[in-house]
Amino acid sequence: MLVSVIGLGNFGAKVATKLADKGIEVIAIDSNSELVEKIKDLVTHAITVDVTDEKALRAVNISDIDVAIIAIGDNIQMSIMAVAMLRKLGVGRIIARATNQLHENVLIEIGASEIVKVEEQMGNIIASKIVAPYIIQQYSFATGYSLVQLKLGKKFHGKTIAETQIKTNYSLNIVALEKKVPYVAQDGKSSFRVEINEAPLPMDEIHADDIIAIVGSDKNFDRLFKDLSK
Hints:
Elements: E1 2-6, H1 10-21, E2 25-30, H2 33-39, E3 45-48, H3 54-59, E4 67-70, H4 76-88, E5 93-97, H5 101-109, E6 114-116, H6 118-131, E7 135-142, E8 145-150, E9 159-160, H7 161-164, H8 166-170, E10 173-184, E11 190-197, E12 205-206, E13 211-217, H9 218-228
């Protein structure tokens, strides 16, 4: 897969390097040569290009990429122009960052395949951690749906997955369990190792310190969080 990340600010640079770490071929693009220089050794290719320059984009064969990620966040006009230009050049899948609802609407109208709202998602995560401190991480993967890592705590300690009735009462699905399992190391000292159960069964038991990965709608998570806070 060939992915282009356009806009190498904090968000774009992080996306580009994470993709490269996962073995994805990444072309990082920005009009700022200093930002390009910083990332050039961390991705497949790093190029200084103005994304509104059709001739320059054709010269780097931008139409050959599988996915374009428009990570520009501080210049709405530029991000809109970038999406329009990539669509004109035949890029099939364009994931664009939007900073507000109007920006999102325009990006979709001109051809963005998917929208990422970083500020809104981070705001939701921070708010959730304040309201529900038992949350470890929350990832939005579609509008209104999340994957949440949390500790169910003492309320569910010693119960099996079936006995928690998470699925029955909240229409949420437990998809993984992370447990700390005690063991004796080679030097004779007691320690713990992390074990991931990626296919938990209804009879698997949950302890207070286990980290649970749950998938479902944000509306149903709100009901669970409310009950956990009691």
